[in-house]
């Protein structure tokens, strides 16, 4: 059987313009796909309408085009995929059950896990007359191991670390965990390159992949960029927007944060071609977070040393990132 060809994707939420952190993910996922001779899809994760900003999608598309990161295939929007998510819920069938608990009730009656309170299983045996709110999927008391290309082996026992988790929320929206698994399976994604803030949710996605009978892709979780206060760059932490006009100034600094060599000058297409040619996963910093150092860079000609600086800065700049026990520790 021939090895399936590489299919990658970038999946931003249209909650605001791209910033250096999301641009880093876009760039790395594009480079990894192109270096493998693969396809690169674009999906707008507009699952949560109240959080979406109307102008953001157009800004994101304009920025990616201006950076020369052109997608394959049609743009996918999660807001158009309701039927596929409903079909997945139907397939999960008896693995699902309704839950009547409020957030408060769960917080009061449970221990803290890798991503908030561990659901104690209150509604597993029935609602006893209470009104259903969310839908949960049963998890097993067994280890799930994800062999990340960069972060190494991540092991979780979902019964202990999360409990049965939500696939449709109390407000009726589909949970991210479900949507991302269904969408990646439909695109035939073989390789997911995304930020390490999603590392801890990966075993839940693998659990859903197994229940739905779809393949588990390979994962590469990049370090997230953090500011001088150790906060992940985001709209909430007032990260500077990145636009098409920033490509000349930011392409090499972003590559340097990824441990990759500078592209030098010249036309954008040639610079990107050089970046593809030199793309080396072995040079990525093996951490969950790196300090964003735009402007503080003496020269883009020493990527190895900037990667070392980034790694060295990491322990002080990842508050709450290394939870979950020894399986999640850095080597
Ligand atoms: Zn419940």
Structural notes for this entry:
By secondary structure, this protein is α/β, with parallel strands linked by helices. The protein folds into two domains: 7-80 and 223-320, HUPs (Rossmann fold, 3-Layer(aba) Sandwich); 83-179, HUPs (Rossmann fold). 31% of the residues lie in helices and 17% in strands. It has ten helices and 14 strands. The longest helix has 16 residues, at 20-35. It binds zinc ion. Zinc ion binds next to loops.
Q: What's the SSE blueprint?
A:
Elements: E1 7-10, H1 20-35, E2 39-44, H2 56-66, E3 76-77, H3 82-92, E4 96-99, H4 103-108, E5 112-113, E6 116-117, E7 134-137, E8 143-148, E9 152-157, H5 158-161, E10 165-168, H6 176-187, E11 191-195, H7 202-212, E12 218-222, E13 224-226, H8 247-257, H9 268-278, E14 289-291, H10 303-313
Parallel strand pairs: 1-2, 2-3, 11-12, 13-14
Antiparallel strand pairs: 4-7, 5-6, 7-10, 8-9
Helix pairs in contact: 1-8, 1-9, 6-7
The structure holds zinc ion (ZN).
Zinc ion is lined by residues 99-101, 122-123.
């Amino acid at each position: 059987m021939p090895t399936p060809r590489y299919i990658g994707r970038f999946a931003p939420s249209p909650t605001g313009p791209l910033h250096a952190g999301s641009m880093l993910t876009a760039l790395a996922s594009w480079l990894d796909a192109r270096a493998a001779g693969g396809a690169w899809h674009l999906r707008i994760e507009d699952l949560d309408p109240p959080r979406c900003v109307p102008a953001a999608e157009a800004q994101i598309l304009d920025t990616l085009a201006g950076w020369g990161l052109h997608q394959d295939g049609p743009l996918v929007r999660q807001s158009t995929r309701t039927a596929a998510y409903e079909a997945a819920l139907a397939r999960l069938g008896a693995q699902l059950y309704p839950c009547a608990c409020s957030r408060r009730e769960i917080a009061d009656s449970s221990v803290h896990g890798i991503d908030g309170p561990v659901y104690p299983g209150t509604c597993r045996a029935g609602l006893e007359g209470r009104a259903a709110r969310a839908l949960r999927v049963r998890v097993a008391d067994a280890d799930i191991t994800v062999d990340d290309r960069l972060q190494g082996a991540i092991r979780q026992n979902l019964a202990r670390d999360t409990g049965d988790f939500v696939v449709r929320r109390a407000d009726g929206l589909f949970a991210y965990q479900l949507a991302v698994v269904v969408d990646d399976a439909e695109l035939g994604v073989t390789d997911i390159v995304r930020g390490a803030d999603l590392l801890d949710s990966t075993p839940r996605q693998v659990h859903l992949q197994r229940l739905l009978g779809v393949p588990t892709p390979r994962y590469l979780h990049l370090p997230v960029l953090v500011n001088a206060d150790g906060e992940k760059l985001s709209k909430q932490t007032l990260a500077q927007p990145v636009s098409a006009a920033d490509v000349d100034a930011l392409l090499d600094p972003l590559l340097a944060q990824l441990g990759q060599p500078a592209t030098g000058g010249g036309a954008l297409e040639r610079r990107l071609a050089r970046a593809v040619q030199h793309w080396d996963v072995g040079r990525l910093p093996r951490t969950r977070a790196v300090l964003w150092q735009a402007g503080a860079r003496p020269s883009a000609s020493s990527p190895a040393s900037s990667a070392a600086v980034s790694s060295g800065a990491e322990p002080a700049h990842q508050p709450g990132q290394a939870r979950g026990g020894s399986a999640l520790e850095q080597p």
